[in-house]
Amino acid sequence: QSALTQPASVSGSPGQSITISCTGTSSDVGTYNTVSWYQQHPGKAPKLMIYEGSKRPSGVSNRFSGSKSGNTASLTISGLQAEDEADYYCCSYAGSSTLELFGGGTKLTVL
Amino acid sequence: EVQLVESGGGLVQPGGSLRLSCAASGFTFSSYWMYWVRQAPGKGLVWVSRINSDGYSISYADSVKGRFTISRDNAKNTLYLQINSLRAEDTAVYYCARHYSSGSWDYWGQGTLVTVSS
After folding, report:
1. Is-contact B67 B85, C-beta < 8 A?
2. Using 50, 70 and 90 to split pLDDT, how confident is the model at A95?
3. Cα distance from A106 to chain B (closest Cα, Å)?
């Protein structure tokens, strides 16, 4: 199975909102409500930001939100801050054969 | 505090072997599925292998089947990845991660770099 599709880059100014899309298929994103999102700063480990589509782990800012429509999941970051500049990856469960699929990653630049 | 600390990476020639370790602390290691996820330089995340809490259910990505072996020692709170027949395309940072729910991992180690080169 192919990786999930994310835009290579997105950008926004401080205080603005941005949305990163994550497109899969009816075999993964469209079927399972398991999309997770990770933030990764250069040289650092990924950090879980959203799980099960829209849930935030304890300690993650409510500026981060997740949603899904059909085969596409989205991560929205509101009130953009300089420290949000990072790479973001989505992931979805894709069934018992494939298990989990990652997206290719999106570089967020805060202008 | 939950901690995952990987070790064992390094420079190895093609065809060589390494054993990666991930020392866990701050939680009941024996209760969790654990994963290895790798990231090639400048590339995205790819899951490599997973093991259930008691070590009897194991899965591998197709790209590493037959060459990588995941295991765990719950008495030592340690996860392992034996990697054999290394190829240049195995060059990556290898992370261990604690499974949280389907498709998600809530804690990650800092990673250990494996470089395959002659």
Report:
1. yes
2. confident
3. 9
